[in-house]
Specification:
With about 200 residues, the chain is an alpha/beta fold. The chain contains nine helices and five strands. Strands 2-3-1-4-5 form a five-stranded parallel beta sheet, sandwiched between helices.
Length: about 200
């Protein structure tokens, strides 16, 4: 029986690294952010809704959305962020449901499906998964990773951290917490313990 686990946490805490470690053990992986990018591609329903709501100033010359400019807006404007999430989340949720169902029907169904959903709790998607894993780190670690990985300014990084549910609240709701301030080997051991508890 395939079990479905949601991986969430704060921005810059290492969710993708943890998801990759589960995949290395044999889990199938899904990424809500990748599905969101697909949902807002030109010609998709969410794209048309976003352009109607926010205007063509967020459309690049090649017809794609200027996701950076849109992010700068929504992380400063809570109403705009709610509107954007209200457009995108239903499309992503439907895609996740379809992919999970297809994996479970597969003759070679994996023992575990890990679904990386950064806004799992904020979007109320706990019902989509059986267990939740929160990937957590100190805020200083988050901010340093964001600066190094994306070149964000300290202000941009803080806006993104502040827009999400506090990590302490996510940890309180989690079935498992994996901390990523230590070494990769330490993280890998934590992942292995969760895998053993869920699969073995």
């Amino acid at each position: 029986m395939t079990r479905v686990v949601g991986i969430t946490g704060g921005i810059g805490t290492g969710k993708s690294t943890v998801a990759a470690m589960f995949a290395a053990l044999g889990a199938a992986g899904m990424d809500a952010d990748a599905l969101a990018r697909a949902a807002v591609a030109p010609g998709c329903p969410a794209y048309e809704e976003i352009v109607a709501r926010f205007g063509r100033r967020f459309v690049r010359a090649d017809g794609t959305l200027d996701r950076g400019a849109l992010a700068d807006l929504v992380f400063r404007d809570a109403d705009a962020r709610r509107d954007l999430e209200g457009i995108v989340h239903p499309h992503v949720t439907q895609a996740l449901r379809e992919e999970i169902a297809a994996l479970r029907r597969s003759p070679n169904a994996p023992p575990l499906v890990v679904v990386e959903i950064p806004l799992l709790y904020e979007a109320g998607l706990e019902w989509l998964v059986e267990k939740t894993v929160v990937v957590s780190s100190e805020q200083g670690t988050q901010l340093e990773r964001l600066k190094t990985r994306t070149g964000m300014t300290p202000e941009q990084a803080m806006l993104r951290v502040a827009a999400q549910m506090p990590l302490q609240e996510k940890e309180r709701r989690a079935d498992y917490v994996i901390r990523t301030d230590g070494s990769l080997e330490d993280v890998r051991q934590q992942v292995r313990r969760v895998w053993d508890d869920l699969v073995v």
